[in-house]
Design goal:
Blueprint (H helix, E strand, L loop, with lengths): L4 H4 L12 H13 L5 E5 L6 H13 L13 H8 L5 E5 L6 H11 L9 E6 L6 H12 L5 E7 L7 H4 L3 E4 L5 H15 L2 E2 L1 H10 L4 H14 L3 E2 L1 H8 L4 H12 L3 H13 L4 H20 L11 H5 L4 H17 L5 H11 L9 H8 L5 H8 L4 H8 L2 H9 L1 E5 L2 E7 L8 H7 L3 E6 L12 H10 L6 E4 L2 E4 L1
Parallel strand pairs: 1-4, 1-5, 2-3, 3-4, 6-7, 9-10
Antiparallel strand pairs: 8-9, 11-12
Helix pairs in contact: 2-3, 3-4, 5-6, 8-9, 9-10, 12-13, 12-14, 13-17, 14-16, 16-17, 18-19
Length: 480
């Protein structure tokens, strides 16, 4: 029978717990030194190992051959706990057994001594779901439990636990796991299962799981099944409908460049291909948040994992903060309107991001007589011709370079005759490169080579006139 990865690779010892060093050390020492509390409260996000740790603790205090606080995993009691048929381990789902009658039944059963093990253990999952009356019925038992009885309350919502309950429990907080820790564990599973995996794909799974190991392992299991033993980014995109981090960053680059057309097209493509728009927008928000942190701190490595992308983005902090606000606003507006429409509005509003000045540039502008556009132009250190060279084909670039031009206030002004611009899509160039200006000069009208009659010359000179047209009529001069 097939065993899912989440069950197959569930930790069975304190040393196997990933990313929960504090919880592991506290409980291991308590078992080893014989300093167990009567009741524990394990609190933290879902999938971070609360129930798994509760079971490891149950093994450790009931193991027949423990080693320095760790369960052996091979004795009769350890195996029975693994299989879920140990009589002295009682697990309750407080979400479905939340009433006072359920707690009273539990309280009555507590008085019985352990049947097979050294301790009787009660694990209450989702403990915050208990009613106030049920909590009150549990108070006395938690405060003075019978000998060799241990209570472990697990919750994802610590703030909903009554203060009177908290005061009677030893609290252990479980934190979200780091992406690096999750990826390391996923690699280990891939090696043991002979799966072909891409590291980028594993990081995508870790990011999607939002710090929860259980979710990450389950996603790996599903992806490997769908990909027939291969864990790749394209498999994840196709199976989960979630874009890779690289594509999310491409979208952010469009926003920062003010390319509204490109960003809207990108968004519509996501919708038409059936990708999860909500998760995509979450990823965009997370990436922009990382950019804000990178721009804000002197030593961002202590807070986030700094990548080349963060250094490549040249946008100032004000621009990033404005973009972050637009993304959050779209999320809030999605409560009253369609998320896609809210995202479209956010993209349209992002068109001014590229023009937002930094604090330093703004101060400089306020203390000078220069216009904001001039300050912005001076702040741009990128070589404009190099930008054109990188973006245009060689023929078009050389055509532009040969024309008469001047660089002024951060713009390239090209002066040319209409026939010199043949083969160049001037309107498209203007749209794509706002710093390009074209001044089209009209060709001078050729003076009529034919010699003007003396009468015409004198009339033109006398009145300082301009000849509009001139015709000869039967050998006689006939100016008009």
């Amino acid at each position: 029978m097939y065993i899912p990865f989440a069950r197959k690779y569930r930790p069975k010892r304190f040393s196997e717990l990933v990313g929960q060093e504090v919880a592991s050390k506290v409980l291991l020492n308590a078992v080893r030194l014989g300093k167990l509390a009567n009741a524990y409260l394990f609190a933290g996000p879902r999938g971070t190992g609360k129930t798994t740790t509760a079971r490891i603790l149950t093994r450790a205090i009931n193991c027949l051959r423990p080693t320095d606080g760790e369960p052996c995993g091979e004795c009769e009691n350890c195996l029975a706990i693994d299989k879920g048929n140990f009589p002295d381990l009682i697990e309750m789902d407080a979400a479905s057994n939340r009433g006072i009658d359920d707690i009273r039944a539990l309280r009555d059963a507590v008085s019985y001594t352990p049947i097979k093990g050294k301790h009787k253990v009660y694990i209450l999952d989702e403990a915050h779901m208990l009613t106030k009356e049920a909590f009150n019925a549990l108070l006395k038992t938690l405060e003075e439990p019978p000998p060799r009885t241990l209570f472990i309350l697990c919750t994802t919502e610590y703030d909903k636990i009554l203060p009177t309950i908290l005061s009677r429990c030893q609290r252990i907080i479980f934190s979200k796991l780091k992406e690096e820790d999750i990826v390391k564990f996923l690699k280990l599973i891939c090696e043991r299962e002979n799966l072909r995996c891409e590291e980028k794909a594993l990081y995508t799974i870790a990011r999607i799981s939002d710090g929860g190991m259980r979710d990450a392992v389950s996603l790996l299991d599903q992806t490997a099944t769908f990909g027939e033993g291969e864990v790749k980014e394209e498999v994840i995109e196709e199976f989960l409908g979630i874009l890779s981090q690289e594509k999310v960053r491409d979208f952010i680059k469009l926003l920062l460049a003010g390319d509204v057309d490109g960003a809207l097209s990108f968004l519509r493509d996501i919708r038409d291909k059936g990708y999860n728009l909500s998760k995509f927008w979450d990823s965009v928000e997370e990436e922009v948040r990382a950019l804000v942190i990178f721009r804000s701190l002197r030593d961002p490595e202590k807070v986030i994992k700094v990548e080349p992308f963060h250094r490549e983005v040249s946008a100032n902090l004000n621009s990033l903060l404005y973009l972050e606000k637009l993304i959050n606003t779209a999320r809030m507006e999605a409560r009253t309107m369609d998320l896609f429409k809210a995202c479209e509005i956010a993209i349209i509003k992002s068109s001014i991001v590229k023009d937002i000045l930094s604090i330093e540039e703004l101060v400089k502008y306020l203390s000078s007589s220069e216009k904001p556009q001039e300050v912005q132009a001076k702040a741009q250190k990128e070589d404009l011709w190099q930008t054109l060279k990188n973006s245009l084909n060689k023929i078009d670039f050389e055509k532009l370079r040969r024309l008469s031009w001047e660089e002024k206030e951060g713009k390239i002004i090209i002066k040319a005759k209409k026939e010199e611009l043949k083969g160049l899509d001037v309107e498209k160039l203007r749209t794509k490169f706002p710093f390009l200006e074209f001044v089209v000069e009209e060709a001078e009208k050729k003076e009529e080579k034919e010699e003007l009659p003396e009468f015409v010359k004198k009339t033109k000179s006398l009145f300082n006139a301009k000849i509009i047209s001139y015709e000869r009529n039967k050998g006689k001069d006939n100016p008009s």
